[in-house]
Amino acid sequence: MTRKNVIFTLLIGIMLFPILTFGQVKIGYISSERVRQEYEEFKEAETQLQLEFRKVQYEYQEKLRVLDSLKQAYETQRLMSSPEWRREKEQEITEKEIAIQNYQAEKVGPEGELYKRQAQMEYDLLSKVKRAVDKVAISKGYDFIFDGSVSLLYGKPTYDLTDDVLYELRKAADAEDNSNNK
Known about the structure:
Blueprint: H1 3-22, E1 27-30, H2 32-38, H3 40-77, H4 83-108, H5 113-140, E2 144-147, H6 148-151, H7 162-181
Helix pairs in contact: 3-4, 3-5, 5-7
């Protein structure tokens, strides 16, 4: 466990001590890692992102092959060609290299399409998980629900609400599917 997690756990304990001493507080936890592994939409999103990444990777490799072929053609004809032809080909090679760098930044860079797509999918899925956690907390009267994957050292299995959250997520997905099919 990292020092950061230990400090976080201690702070939570210190904050909760007065509450626990003076009243009944109902606390539960979930395993976000298990939700990620078992919730079908997370798996589908991961698969979709992998396919998109492979497509971009293939296109990138194709662009590199074209550039490599252009460079090879330049090298074989360079000595027998006019200075004007060499300048044109060097310019063409430089433009291709810049285009490849731009393509890479546009697709997989920090502001790239895949990064934005992944962030949006993550946000959408985590919003669904949050709504499911809120439903479980309200319906079962919990005051706090923690993510056990982050800093839980031990938790009684009776306080593990992961199955309840997964149930809510699946129920919401079924309701969404039913409304889409109508």
